[in-house]
Amino acid sequence: MKQSDQQFGAGLKLSRRLSALAEWVPQGARLADIGTDHALLPVFLAGSGKVSMAIAGDVNAGPVEAAKRQVAEAGLAHAVSVRLGDGLAVVSPGEVDAVSIAGMGGSLMVRILDQGKASLEGVRTLILSPHVAEDAVRKWLTVHRYVIDRETLIEEDGVIYSVIRAIKVDDEAEAGEKAAQLYDLTLLAPRLPKVSPSLMYEMGPLLMREPTEVFHRKWEQEIAKRERVILQLSHTDAPEAAEKAKEWQEDVREIREVLACLPAEKRSSN
């Protein structure tokens, strides 16, 4: 789907990030969009016929009222249910088979997933877009037998966002085997014998396999952020500051090493 084509309902047009999420929702899915804001994603998907039904959930009353207006204007009240509630509390167990969450940090996303485990019964597909702490999300997915099958980076208005899709694997042994293949620490051997697990969770196992221009730009920006922190720590006399600066310097060294060993970057399709 091209963004220029993505107009349905009340003249609805999705952002690039929401377009990426929409593309990865399985055809015919029963979707819950958590933190839905104005319900743009559910309305687009229901209006285009890609989902059979959708739940648009938000914890704040203002966005819920806006979402209800959006749904009504699009004539989709029969297909999109707008609900006020915290996280996955708006979903009954077995009610949906796909969940999308975007527009928040990874730590909050993990809290929502943890607190809503009962509502994830029957959910095969998670489409997530954390804007920070992506490593926390990837670790949660691994622990709960959701295996990442797609990852991309979307640059919009000068900000780079991660989008991750993961599929539930019921068999524990199979899930462990797939996770081990996904997070293969010898991915860059022999140039780099081993990548640290923490960095692979942070950078993204599939993104590392096919690094784009946007990926390289994101990590150059991350290096710059870390170097600013190191500089700030160097002006602090506290003993723990020196130790923390060493840790950040080691992070920067490893990131640079990984970037130097990655396959030649590909032109971004974003």
From TrEMBL:
InterPro entries: SAM-dependent_MTases_sf, TrmK. Pfam families: TrmK. It comes from the Bacteria. This is tRNA (Adenine(22)-N(1))-methyltransferase.
